[in-house]
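If your schedule permits, I should be very grateful for your opinion on a structural question. What I wish to show you is a protein chain and, alongside it, a tokenised description of its three-dimensional fold. Would you kindly read the sequence against the tokens and tell me how you understand this chain to fold? Here, with my thanks, is the record as I have it:

===
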Amino acid sequence: MDLDYTSAAELSGMIRNRTVSPIEVMRATLDRIERSQPVLNAFITVAADAAMRSARAAEAAVMQGTVLGSLHGVPVAVKDLIPTADLRTTWGSLIFKDHVPDRDAVAVERLRRAGAIVVGKTTTPEFGQQCLTQAPLFGRTRNAWRSDRSSGGSSGGSAVAVAAGLVPIAVATDGGGSTRIPAACNGIVGFKQGLGVVPQEYAQDGFGNISYITPMTRTVLDTALMLDVMAGTDPRDPLTTGRPKADFVAAARGGDLKGLRIAWRARLGNSAVATDVLTACEAALGAFAELGADVSELTAPFENPEVVWFVNNGAYRMAQFGHHLKRHRAIMCPTFVRQMDRVANYSAAELYDAIFQRTRLYRQVQAWFDTCDIVAMPTLSRSAVPIDQDFFGPIDIDNQSVETPTPCRST
């Protein structure tokens, strides 16, 4: 039985109905990971023995008629930024190549409780600070469909593992596109929900956290299943306090789009979008219109906010990881070191000016929803870039070299 591209929803049903065994599923999963690893390089650590033990326990639970969770026996991969008990968590860094946490992140704990089986930790650039997945610890992760293209980042390993049929679902993170970018590069579902939906109880800044634990899947229903399991309040994360839990599965199984107001915006402060990207987006908009949506163009003024991101994210990460530069610079990713060096001297006043700008940006964007329900945009300006793309260099869009924004300082 070929299980490679079976969804989590289907797989859990097959296990529940005893059409397939969790042991059979896990053997196929581990075999596919092993065969793909020399080319795709989607995993930093594979927990084969522990996964097989869990699969045998899952099989026993099925045979004993135990009440089963919604993801019982389903393999899941976890990005190597997220703590996993007794399973190496490196943050993609040589500094932490032997680090083993003693407890799971609550999102992982909840997935295990629902019956999902963690098969390993997926690749991430050092501390998740690139939109390309490469690091001295493991090298490069290749695109699931073309080995000469990047997987995107920073959740490139999770995206490739899902897109290549190694696992049906994976856990990722997203601060500035780390789920959405590799999802677009590899053709899967990458969803960044709001802060406080899925707890991040280990975040150092519980009040101003800028990163999210997210699902990565091949279907919208599987995304809903993951969120249904991972979401919910946790007293260690103040952003979850008092937040009601949505019915994600019901939303994923919703009806037509009649009356939904979709505002289409081809650019969001960027100067160019590839023709093939625009063609694909416009085809999707046409399908939405056929399903009853009211599609119109959004032309409100908007400036590229990436420099604001440089300051906000750079200051946050400097506080988190900057101390490693003093002791470990020689073994750290040169791209990460350069990122940290270029934001090292921002002042507290400049940081808060960027925070104020972020608030103004939020209010500007929220005003758009006075006249629409959804804003539709391309995720990326082009398809996946070449595997050897320079993080700091221009990108090619329709044979034109397009510069990316660089941080600037007020004087």
